Amino acid sequence: MANFVSSIRFSDPYFSVLLMLGIGVGMAVAFVLLSQALGPKRYDRVKYSVYECGVDPFTTASVRIPVKFYLIALLFILFDLESAFIYPWAVLFRQLGWFGFIEMGIFILILLAGLIYAWKKGALEWQ
Amino acid sequence: MSPIPIDAAALLTGLRCILPEILVVATAIFVLFVDLMIPEENKRILCGISLIGVVISLFSVFLLGPARISGFSGAVVHDGLGAFFEIVILAACALTLLMATGYSEWEGTHKGEFYSLLLLSTSGMMFMAKGTDLMTVFLGLETLSIPIYVLVGFHRHRMSSIEGALKYFLLGAFASGFFLYGVALMYAATGTTKIPALAAMLLDARLAANPVFLAGVGLLLVGLAFKVSLVPFHMWTPDAYEGAPTVVTAFMSAAVKAAAFAALIRVLLLTFGGLQPVMWKVLWALSVLTMTVGNLSALLQDNVKRMLAYSSIAHAGYVLVGLVSGDFLGGQAALFYLLVYAFMNIGAFGVVILIAQKEDEGYDIRNLAGIGFKYPALGAFLTLFLVSLGGIPPTAGFVGKFYLFSAAVKNGYIWLAVLGVLNSAASIYYYLRLVVYMYMVPAEGEMPVPRPSRLAFSAALFASGAAVLLLGIFPGSALDLAARSVLSLLM
Lengths: 127, 491
Fold this sequence. Notes:
The structure holds two protein chains of two kinds. Chain A is mostly helical.
């Protein structure tokens, strides 16, 4: 530990990161403590209600959600990630040329295989 | 903006380097589509197709040979070590496939997904064995793990299977996190994730004393130790191994272990000079702890599958004995042992599948009573595999253990070898206990009738049995191969 402290130098390019970390944590802690120390404390019925503003809840929040959503959500993640990969490729499309085109083609074909599989297995039907 | 020049030759070299993996992945996707076309009762074809794909991939490993081919800017390399582990992993996959059709028909879980998941997991293992960049190793680890989580829970109407899968998944996800965080810290300390570059940097002794780097190495070790189930990261093993379909258990215990050890061996042997003086105490303690806890827990088990799970923990400890010294001799012994272990463990699980009529109920040790004389072939095979697991000559298990412990002795770790031998002696008790049940305990009441073996299943048992005997009596060429594989890594 002593080694670590003595190894810190102001000229280090990462010193600003350490500084920012310290200030960030310090500010967060300080605000919580300050509001605790300085804030007015009035505890009445309104303060203790579920929400100080808004509509009172009228059912319990724990509802059973059909498991089918899970499948749809998984498929969504799959194709969402696909598009996330395609964006940076599209930015560099001209520079990558035919090589990039073929690479992306293979990538999309493999994902397409997954889609066809899911379709054929009935994952897209809401039964 | 000018187009980025594409080096066609480098690209082709890269593709050649991962040819066996490409073949396995292509087979997996092909199997997935064939599964859509064929009717429910013809699923056996899928096993045949997968097997053909695995054999072609194995053939391509032989064609590529032990020559060093580095691809994708040094992210993947095909060298002796990679080829050796590809042989181990593909052989384990082939044996599992041979046993899988029969098993799935008996258990009524014949599904096409089984084969593609198995193949995808195999491809991940192969990448893990060949990755020279820690990121490639991580990708391999994930590609390996995710299909295995699904396969463990493949009996989806059986509580034990789901329980095992959930435990394995939750703990496995944590372990992957540990691994990745370790890589991140190592990157923070060195600025690279390439294993050879790390090894070169470790020549500077200051790096091996850097706390950030050491923390990274420790976390990396935790991630890999989880996959090979070293104590104290073994908690998931008995439950996952017991709950999983038995063919998957056999596959996991042999191939997943081999893949994770491949990554561990690559890291430990390449960073030998810099890291070993720091690491050996940790590895020594892990090894002794793993052997002892694994063997002592196995002594108490009455469920054969659970007993083999604990025994597989103990065997991970034996392999680690070879890695404590982190040198050529230990590496060679570890490689040879992993090869032998794949055959004897898959074989033992195979016989157990035949004897137990039903998952969940059939694995009690009392079911073995009287099997030996009534079904001599089954009894002989199980005895052979158990004797080999216990390390008694003339089987391959003996040769493997002999080389592991003698490597420890030659490097001056006398106590480690002594503890290893003591553990090995204790393990003989619970292996031979099964043999005693088979031959000397009379059956009470009605004797269970083993499943009638199929041609493919018998072929898998014969192949494993022959490998255990041949590697035990003529270990020379396999030991040479292991030696050359380790040398190709160090050069």
